[in-house]
Design goal:
Distance between the termini: 22 Å
Number of helices: 2
Order of helices and strands: HEEEEHEE
Shape: globular
Radius of gyration: 12 Å
Strand content: 25-35%
Number of strands: 6
Largest sheet: 6 strands, antiparallel
Helix content: 25-40%
Length: 90
């Protein structure tokens, strides 16, 4: 990562909680809009929509560290998930 995404992650996460929403953070592996990268995107559980914000990284571990720092729990990829979904964090 060439910038520190931490402030934006905390801001989005806290704003969602204050609004009564739960963000599900998903890590994607090699999505079509970011070939060769891992992408972290928040998804609103209240309105069922992904956020337009995203963070990319060369490694999944860098994104996992951010989610662990936020105190979230990893949910492994589920059968039927899009093949580019690596895991989700709640």
């Amino acid at each position: 990562m060439s910038f520190d995404p931490w402030p934006a992650i905390v801001e989005r996460h806290n704003a969602a909680l204050e609004a009564g929403d739960l963000l599900i953070w998903t890590i994607y592996d090699n999505p079509s809009d970011a070939p060769g990268r891992f992408v972290l995107r928040p998804f609103s559980s209240r309105n069922g929509q992904p956020d337009t914000w995203a963070c990319t990284s060369k490694t999944a571990e860098a994104l996992r560290e951010l989610m662990q720092r936020l105190g979230l729990t990893c949910m492994p990829r589920q059968n039927g998930d899009d093949p580019v979904i690596l895991e989700s964090w709640l």
